[in-house]
C-alpha cells in the first residue's frame, strides 16, 4: 500500500493543540490563514504520496551508488527533487525575501512529516539544505546570504553539514580539519569528513558544504572550531558556477538502511586545498552549528514520527487484509488478524505513540514561532525556554519510539515481515539510524540534563510540569470515565517526572555521574509524560467537540480511546523510569571497565 | 572481535542455580559428571568460536543461494557442518542407543547457546534436526526410528519441519496439503509449504522432511492433520539412498537477516506425488508436532539468549576501544566510551537481561530433565508443570529481549553501528525473526494464558510464585544493601505477577478478549519477574561464595551488581505491565477495525 497523509490528525493537532490561530496572528505570520494552510497541506500531501512515496522502495533496492568520485542517486530521485524544487517546497518556512513562502515552522512541520513518511532517504537532502539555510540566515554575511540563500531556497543547490571525522564522532573537540587563511579573505581547508549526508549527488547543480575546521592559532577543543562555506563548485561574482573546488567524495557507506541517501566520505584539500569562506567570526563555529543543529534535531525527531506513521499505516493495512485464525469470542471461520486482541494491542501501541509524538512536536514548533515573533518579550522568553527544553525530547524520544514502532510493525506482519519484499523490514532498518545521527539519544539527554534542566535550576521543567498539572485537574473534573482514567495516569506520570527533575537538579553537583547514569531514562520519562500530556489535552478537546456535536464524531471517539490507551499502556512506565533515575545509578556504575 | 563463550557464567548457572549435581544424580543422567560436563563445554566452546563463529559474517555477505532447485549454502558451511557432525555435536542430548551421547538437556543447553552465539544461521540446521529426532523418538515406529535416527543423530542427514503454507501461518487449521494412501502403507503428498528452514541445502546427503498434511476423510481444522515423513531421497531397505522423491525447492526467501539459512518454498507432488510415511496415527499430527515444538520453542528462546550474548560482547568490546569525549568527572583527555555513564547503562542493560534469560532457561532445562528421569512421580509431575509453564516464557521473553539487546548494541556503536561493515547491524537484523518463527510472541502468550495458566486454575503459576516469595524472604534477611534492594524490587514484581495471574484466571470466562488483550504483557511480566527471581537467587549464591572466600571474587561481585541492575532497571516495569493487563483491556479493544 502507498502512503496516505494523516491530514485529519494533523489538522486536529494544529488547531486544537498547537494553536494555529494564535500563530497565524503573530506579526510576520499573517500568511498562515486557515485557507492557505489547508491548501499547502493538501497539495503537499498529494505531492508526497504521489511523487515521492513510490520511490521509497526503489531507494532500498537500488541504493545510490559511487563511481570515480561521482554519486548516482536512485533512479527517479533526480526528477522528483527537481519537481520538489519547482513546486517551491524547499522554501515553505524560509524568507520571502529570498524566494521562500515565509510560513511559520508550525506549518512547515507537517510538510516535513509528510515528506519523511513518503521517503526518509529522499527527505534528508532538503533537511540538510534547511540546516544550511538556517546557518547562513543566522551567521552569514549579507554577501554570503545574497550568493547562496536564493539558490538554496529554490532548490537549485543543496547544502550539507560537515562535522564528523573518523576520530571525532559525538566528540567534536577532536576535530582536526584545518583551515589556512590565504590573505585574500578566503581559506584553504584540509581534512577528512565522514558520514556526510548527501555530501555528493546528482540531484542539483551545486552542493554547499558547511564545514567545521580549525585555524592554526585556534584554541584546543570545541572553542577553536570555525565554520566555513566550501561549495562543490566555486561561485563567480555574477553567481554563475566557477571552477570545481578541491572537495571530493572518495566513497559512500554501505548502510543498513536509508540506502538511497548517499553518506559520503569527503576529502578536503588533497589537490592543493579546498577554498572556503569563513562564516561569522573565527572560533565561533560550534555556536553557529548549534543554531542549525537545534532545527536539524527537531527535524530528525519529525523523521521518527514520520517513519512511525508509515510503519503504522502499513501494519494496519496488512492486519485488515490478512485472514488467519478465528475470532476468540466467535465461532465462525477465520477472520482478519485485526480482530485478534494482541494485533489490536500492537496497532494501538504504534498509533498512540505516533499521535502523542506528533502532538508534542507540533506544539514545540508553535512555541518556536511564538518565541520568534511574539510582540511581548516575556512571552518570547518563556516560549523559547519551552522550545529549548523540548528539542532534545522531540529528537530523542520520537526517534527511540520510531524504532519500537517499526519493530512492532514487523511483528504484526509475522513471518512475512521478515521477508524483504513485504516492505515492513525497510522501516525497521531505516529507523535504526534515527536515534543515532544528529546527536545520539545520550547526547540529547546530556543536553536535556545540562543546558535545559540544570542550568536554570529546573525552573523551565517545573513551569511545564505546572501546565501538565493543570491538564490533570481538567481531566479529573471531566464527567467521563476515560478522561478521568487518563487524568489519573497523567498525574502519576507528573509525579515521576517531578521526582526526576528534583533528583537531577539536586544531585548534579554532588554526583554528576549518578545524574548522567539516568539521563536517557529522564529523557524518555519526559517524553512519555509530555506526550501523555498532549494526549490528555487532545482527549479534552475531542470531548468538547463531541459535546458541541461538531465535526467527525468517530474521529473524536477514536482520539479519546487512543489517548486512554496511551495513558494505560505507555504512561505507567513513568514509575519505572523514576526508579531507574532516582534509585538506579549505583548499579549502572558498579563494575570496573575490565569486568565487561 | 570474535565470540568468546561465557563459560564462567554458564558454569555458575549450571551449578549454583540449575542444580547440575542433582540432574547428574538422576537415573539415566549419570554420565553428566562435573568432569564430563566441563570437558564437553570446553570443547564445544573451542569448536564454536574457532570453526563456526568466523563464518557468521560470511553468511550475511554471501547468503545461501538457489539455482534450478538446488541450494548452495554459504562458503564454508558444508565443511563446518561435516566437522560438527564428525565431532558428534548433533548427538549431545540424544540416545546412546542411536549413537548419541545421552547427556541431559541441561548440558545440551549451553552447547546450543554457544552454537547459536557463534552463528545463528548455521545453528538452525542442527536445531531442526533435533526437532525431527524428537518427533521420531516420540511418535515414530520402531522401523522408522531404525531407518532414520542414527543417521540424523550422526549428522549424516538433517531434518525439517513443514507446517506453514501461504494461507496457513499461525493458523494451522488452514493447512491444505493433502495425503493420499497408496494401499501399500505409503501415502502420496501434494501441496506447497513455505518458510521451511534448511528445506533444501548441500550440507548433508539426505533431508528428512516432517510434513503436516490432511487425508481425504480427515475432520476439518487442526484435528484433521496427520504427520508424515517425506525424505528428499527415498531410503532403500538396506538404508542406502534410493530415488529422488517428488519434493522440490522452487525458491528461497530474500530475508532481512539469518541470510545464510535457506528458507525454502517446497513443492510436494508436482510430478506424481511425494512419497511419505505416516508417523503414529492419522489425525494426531498436531499433537506430535506440539511435542517437538516445545523443544523447538525452547531452542529458539536459546537463540535469543545466544544472540544477545554475542551482541553484548561486541558492544562491550567496542566501548572499551572507542576513544571519545572526556570522563564526566575528570579533566584529562578523551577516554574510552565505556567510561560514559549512558554507555555503561546500555551495556549493563544488555548484560543483565542476557544473564537473567540464561539463568531462567537453564533452570527450565533442568526441570525438563527431572520431569523425565526422576524416580518420584510427584516430583516428575511438578517439574513437568514448571517446564510447561516456562517454555512459552523462555521462547517469548528471551526473543523479545534479544531484539532490544541487539538494538542497544547498535546504539552503543553510534554511527558505526549503522554501517554494515561493523557487524552490529547483522545482529539487529538477525534478531528480528526470533519473536516470530516457531510461534510468534502472541502465540506463546496464548499458550501461557490458555494451556499453562487457565487450565489448572493458576495452580502452577501460584506454586512458582511461592518459590519467588521464598527468595524475596531470603534476600530481605540478608545483611547486604544490594541483596535487600533486589529483594524489594522482586517482591514488587511478584505482587504484580500475582495480580496478573488472578486477573487472567478470574476473567477468562467472562471476557476472554480482555484477558487476551493483556496476554503478551503477561508473558513479558512473567519473564522479568522470573528472570529477576533467578538473578535474586544468583545474587544470594554469589554472596555465599564471597562469604566462603571461595572462587573468583570479582565475578561474584559483578554478579551481585548485575542482579541489582536488573532489579532496579528492569523489574520496575512489572507494575506497568500489571496496569496494562488489569486496567488496560478496554482501550486495546475500543476501536472498530475501520478506525485503524
Question: What is the compact description of this entry?
Answer:
The structure is a homodimer of 596-residue chains. The first copy, chain A, has 596 residues and is α+β, with helices and mostly antiparallel strands.
Low-confidence stretches of chain A: none
How many strand segments of chain A? 14
Main beta sheet of chain A: 5 strands, mixed, barrel
Quaternary state of the chains: homodimer
Q: Mean pLDDT score of chain A, rounded?
A: 97
What is the CATH homology-level superfamily of the domain at 7-63 and 74-153 in chain A?
Acyl-CoA dehydrogenase/oxidase, N-terminal domain
Shape of chain A: globular
Strand order of the largest sheet of chain A: 4-5-12-7-6
CATH class of the domain at 7-63 and 74-153 in chain A: Mainly Alpha
Indicate the percent of residues in helices of chain A. Answer: 55-70%
Give structural notes.
2 copies of one chain form a homodimer. Among the domains of chain A are: 7-63 and 74-153, Acyl-CoA dehydrogenase/oxidase, N-terminal domain (Butyryl-Coa Dehydrogenase, subunit A, domain 1, Orthogonal Bundle), CATH 1.10.540; 158-283, Butyryl-CoA Dehydrogenase, subunit A, domain 2; 456-584. In chain A, 57% of the residues lie in helices and 13% in strands. The first copy, chain A, contains 20 helices and 14 strands. The first copy, chain A, has a 5-stranded mixed barrel. Chain A has a two-stranded antiparallel sheet with strand order 1-2. In chain A, strands 8-9 form a two-stranded antiparallel ribbon. Chains A and B meet through helix 9, strand 13, helix 10, helix 11 and helix 12 of A and helix 9, strand 13, helix 10, helix 11 and helix 12 of B. Chains A, B: Residues 466-592 form the Acetyl-CoA dehydrogenase-like C-terminal domain. Chains A, B: Involved in the assimilation of dimethylsulphoniopropionate (DMSP), an important compound in the fixation of carbon in marine phytoplankton, by mediating the conversion of 3-(methylthio)propanoyl-CoA (MMPA-CoA) to 3-(methylthio)acryloyl-CoA (MTA-CoA).
Amino acid at each position: 500500500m502507498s502512503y496516505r497523509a494523516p491530514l485529519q490528525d494533523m489538522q486536529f493537532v494544529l488547531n486544537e493543540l498547537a494553536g494555529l490561530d494564535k500563530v497565524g496572528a503573530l506579526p510576520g505570520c499573517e500568511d498562515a490563514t486557515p485557507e492557505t494552510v489547508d491548501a499547502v497541506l493538501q497539495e503537499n500531501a498529494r505531492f508526497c504520496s504521489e511523487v515521492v512515496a513510490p520511490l521509497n522502495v526503489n531507494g532500498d533496492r537500488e541504493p545510490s551508488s559511487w563511481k570515480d568520485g561521482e554519486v548516482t542517486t536512485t533512479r527517479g530521485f533526480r526528477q522528483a527533487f527537481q519537481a520538489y524544487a519547482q513546486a517551491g517546497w524547499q522554501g515553505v518556512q524560509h524568507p520571502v525575501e529570498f524566494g521562500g513562502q515565509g510560513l511559520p515552522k508550525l506549518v512547515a512541520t507537517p510538510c516535513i512529516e509528510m515528506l519523511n513518511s513518503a521517503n526518509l532517504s529522499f527527505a534528508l537532502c532538503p533537511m540538510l539544505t534547511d540546516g544550511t539555510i538556517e546557518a547562513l540566515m543566522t551567521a552569514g554575511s549579507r554577501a554570503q546570504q545574497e550568493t547562496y540563500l536564493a539558490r538554496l531556497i529554490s532548490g537549485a543547490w543543496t547544502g550539507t553539514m560537515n562535522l564528523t571525522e573518523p576520530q571525532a564522532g559525538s566528540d567534536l573537540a577532536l576535530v582536526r580539519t584545518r583551515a589556512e587563511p590565504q590573505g585574500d579573505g578566503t581559506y584553504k581547508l584540509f581534512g577528512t569528513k565522514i558520514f556526510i549526508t548527501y555530501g555528493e549527488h546528482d540531484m542539483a547543480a551545486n552542493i554547499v558544504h558547511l564545514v567545521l575546521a580549525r585555524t592554526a592559532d585556534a584554541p584546543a577543543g570545541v572553542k577553536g572550531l570555525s565554520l566555513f562555506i566550501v561549495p562543490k563548485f566555486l561561485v563567480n561574482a555574477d553567481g554563475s558556477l566557477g571552477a570545481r573546488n578541491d572537495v571530493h567524495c572518495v566513497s559512500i557507506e554501505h548502510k543498513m538502511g536509508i540506502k538511497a541517501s548517499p553518506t559520503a566520505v569527503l576529502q578536503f584539500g588533497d589537490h592543493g586545498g579546498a577554498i572556503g569562506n569563513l562564516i561569522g567570526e573565527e572560533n565561533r563555529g560550534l555556536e553557529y552549528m548549534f543554531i542549525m543543529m537545534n532545527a536539524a534535531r527537531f527535524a530528525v525527531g519529525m523523521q521518527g514520527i514520520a517513519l512511525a506513521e508509515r510503519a503504522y499505516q502499513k501494519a494496519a493495512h496488512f492486519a485488515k487484509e490478512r485472514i488467519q485464525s478465528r475470532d476468540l469470542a466467535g465461532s465462525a471461520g477465520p477472520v482478519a488478524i485485526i480482530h485478534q486482541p494482541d494485533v489490536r494491542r500492537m496497532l494501538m501501541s504504534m498509533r498512540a505513540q505516533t499521535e502523542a509524538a506528533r502532538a508534542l512536536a507540533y506544539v514545540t514548533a508553535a512555541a518556536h514561532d511564538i518565541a520568534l515573533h511574539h510582540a511581548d518579550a516575556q512571552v518570547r522568553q518563556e516560549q523559547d525556554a519551552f522550545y529549548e527544553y523540548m528539542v532534545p525530547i522531540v529528537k530523542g524520544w520520537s526517534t527511540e519510539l520510531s524504532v519500537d514502532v517499526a519493530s512492532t510493525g514487523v511483528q504484526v506482519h509475522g513471518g512475512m515481515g521478515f521477508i524483504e519484499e513485504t516492505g515492513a523490514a525497510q522501516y525497521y532498518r531505516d529507523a535504526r539510524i534515527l536515534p543515532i545521527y544528529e546527536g545520539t539519544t545520550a547526547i540529547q539527554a546530556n543536553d536535556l540534563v545540562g543546558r535545559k534542566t540544570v542550568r536554570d535550576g529546573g525552573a523551565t521543567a517545573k513551569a511545564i510540569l505546572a501546565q501538565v498539572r493543570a491538564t490533570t485537574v481538567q481531566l479529573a473534573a471531566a464527567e467521563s470515565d476515560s478522561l478521568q482514567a487518563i487524568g489519573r495516569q497523567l498525574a502519576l506520570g507528573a509525579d515521576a517526572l517531578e521526582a526526576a527533575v528534583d533528583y537531577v537538579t539536586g544531585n548534579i553537583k554532588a554526583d554528576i555521574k549518578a545524574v548522567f547514569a539516568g539521563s536517557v531514562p529522564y529523557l524518555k520519562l519526559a517524553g512519555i509524560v509530555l506526550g501523555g500530556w498532549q494526549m490528555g489535552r487532545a482527549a479534552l478537546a475531542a470531548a468538547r467537540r463531541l459535546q458541541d456535536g461538531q465535526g467527525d464524531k468517530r474521529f473524536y471517539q477514536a482520539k479519546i480511546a487512543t489517548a486512554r490507551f496511551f495513558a494505560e499502556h505507555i504512561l505507567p512506565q513513568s514509575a519505572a523510569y523514576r526508579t531507574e533515575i532516582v534509585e538506579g545509578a549505583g548499579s549502572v556504575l558498579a563494575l570496573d571497565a575490565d569486568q565487561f
